[in-house]
Amino acid sequence: MSGVVPTAPEKPADEMENQIKSPNPQPDAPPDYNSHFVPGPPGAAVPPPVGYPGGFPVRYYSLQQPSTFPYGQPTGGTYPIQYQPGKYPVSYQSAPITWMPGSAPIPDCPPGLEYLTQLDNIHVLQHFEPMEMMTRLETNNKYDIKNNLDQMVYVVIEDTDDFTRNAYRTLRPFILRVMDFTGREIMTMQRPFRCTCCCFCCPSTRQELEVQCPPGVTLGFVVDHWNLCRAVYSVQNEKKETVLRIRGPCSTYGCGSDSVFEVTSLDGVSNIGSIIRKWNGLISAMGDADHFDIRFPLDLDVKMKAMIFGACFLIDFMYFERSPPQRSSR
Fold first, then answer.
1. Which label site among 98, 142, 149, 210 has the fewest CB atoms less than 10 Å from its CB?
2. What is the reported pTM?
3. How many CA atoms lie within 13 A of 42 on its CB side?
4. Distance from C-alpha of 114 to C-alpha of 184, rounded to nearest angstrom
């Protein structure tokens, strides 16, 4: 007959009762059903904890941090679950880097050296490389150059291949690239290989560093001179004419004190500036992460500032660079 909707046959009551009382029913999938739940009006917003206006402190977990993995997720209640600061893992984000404000181009100043015209003191901070301690392989050195306000001025990165770096160690020839906040290479420092098997007073064994600014244009040279008692260097212009001298301490391996390299005039009377290797306790004794403090007059020629800056790296490689210990072959 039309208009009659067929219905499923009714099951006996005893069969339905057996289905209800069957122990541990485990269906393959949950049954479909229509919820009769009617949502009520929204409740009042939960205020943040007392003493932390505007939200939770940095080391507290919250639902707005999807990258964190706390040991126990909030399951309900009036307040979210909080953890003791510093006890559980949190997501670490690199601290923002503050760069020194730029300067307009200056006549007769190589591009990129405008920063040095505003400074009379810079800090050279070498990165600590834990991989060197674990693998005993030499890695490329990296340095941060900062001013007294802890603002980044330059970044210096070594560019040497793996074989040269690990075969020649501290005597290796290298290329250092100095870059500003835009990633532009504004200066290049090159150290050629010098054989040290000859007599120390032989000119062919003298260590030398060429400074180019901009890259490809020679700004000057830093040349090592043999001396029986102390480290002696000469700072030369692009024509290899000596313009400044650098005299180091009698012992550069002093424990517990700074090592001062004085920058003087040609006659040695006037003190122009200094390159100070700071003593940092166990980090200086065990790790390869040096800290240099470079000082020069504010009105010094910016090219001479760049040459003193370059001399710092030759001094670091000759006296303070430590190679990872080698495994003894048996």
1. 149
2. 0.68
3. 3
4. 14
